Amino acid sequence: MKYKDYFIRNEREQKFAEMADQLAVNFAKRAHIHDEEGSFPFENFEDMKEAGYLKTTVPKEYSGDGASLYEMVLMQERIAKGDGSTALGVGWHVGMMLSLRESREWPEELFKDFCKKVVEDGEMINSFASERATGSPARGGRPQTTAEKTEDGWVISGRKTFSTLSPILNYFTVSAGIKDENKIGRFLVQKSENVKIEETWNTMSMRATGSHDVILDNVFVPDSALIEVEVPGEKTHHQSDSGWMLHIPACYIGIAHAARDFAVNFALNYRPNSLPGPIAEVDHIQQKIGKIEAELKTARMFLYSVADRWDKNPEERLGLKSELGLAKYVATNSALSIVDQAMRIVGGGSLSRKLPLERMYRDVRAGLHNPPMDDVVLKGLATAAFWAKN
């Protein structure tokens, strides 16, 4: 009997899922090459551009598909089944476009113009905020990158780390401390000769995301590209809702889902001469498969239910912060366990670079270091519990 995904609820979602599934087939064929080389999968992004994937979360009024958060999660999980690095990379783009569509935090003309670039030219976007001295922007801290006001714009200088998609982006946003003021600006920057990429990304996990350092050396940005000026400690548009970041747990669930499929197929077909049938008939293998199924189903149910609530109840989005963080916590930690169990089922052969499991094992480790981190999620849950008692 053909597997039915009960999280696909209608024809529109079916079409989105089929597009992602078709893309993932070729991504899976290339994944080991880019992993071994640490190279950026330009061809994957060309495929997504041609398929129209890059415009799925662009608003309909600007010729996009207006994909919901639920639909984005559905697609991203499937892309990750083919290649985790590609899914995590494109997730920042489709997630940001969804966030910008909902918040309208950019000046409208700037947003409209960029949507046109996405739809017509296949341009993408990401936010470069991390720096070595400040760590994750989610932890706070003033960026060392600086922006100095000029007569008709700004001049920005600094270095950004963990700049995912840096090899392919022509546009990105940066945060920069405004010179001589206790303020932080966010700017849309276009790549130029004053923007350099230093290829520093050489990690054990997610090796093909192109998350190199980006160096800005007196980069001019016009006044029209200023998105927002914030005062540290005060609430801003981009801090108000993190629903779009469910692309992160969707990615790691997708990797774990692929590991599950590999382990199940292996168990059904591996027949050692010491047994009368495949190892799928052995009790302890069935126990491991059962544990995988329990964790995968639980993680997916929670992820999709939170995404559905976010879509259907806009007025409740700010109150979903704990659930959004918990979805990521459950997904990443379940992914670690699922891939581990899959490797135990396959045995010593799972360590071979000829099989995808060892790459999946390394890739899911990266989820622990994507925001929100486990300690932040758990502290938030504890705070909510204490607050509920007062």
TrEMBL record:
The Acyl-CoA dehydrogenase/oxidase N-terminal domain extends over 11-97
Specify the Acyl-CoA dehydrogenase/oxidase C-terminal domain's residue ranges: 249-366
GO MF, one example: acyl-CoA dehydrogenase activity
Question: Does the keyword section mention Lipid metabolism?
Answer: no
Which keywords has UniProt assigned to this entry? FAD, Flavoprotein, Oxidoreductase
- Ranges where the record places region Disordered: 129-149
Provide the cofactor list for this protein.
Answer: FAD
Record SUPFAM superfamilies = Acyl-CoA dehydrogenase C-terminal domain-like (SSF47203), Acyl-CoA dehydrogenase NM domain-like (SSF56645)
Per its UniProt record, what Gene3D superfamilies does this chain match? Acyl-CoA dehydrogenase/oxidase, N-terminal domain, Butyryl-CoA Dehydrogenase, subunit A, domain 2, Butyryl-CoA Dehydrogenase, subunit A, domain 3
Locate the Acyl-CoA oxidase/dehydrogenase middle domain: which residues?
A: 129-219
- Pfam families noted in UniProt: Acyl-CoA_dh_1, Acyl-CoA_dh_M, Acyl-CoA_dh_N
Q: Which family does the entry's similarity section mention?
A: Belongs to the acyl-CoA dehydrogenase family.
Its recorded name reads Acyl-CoA/acyl-ACP dehydrogenase
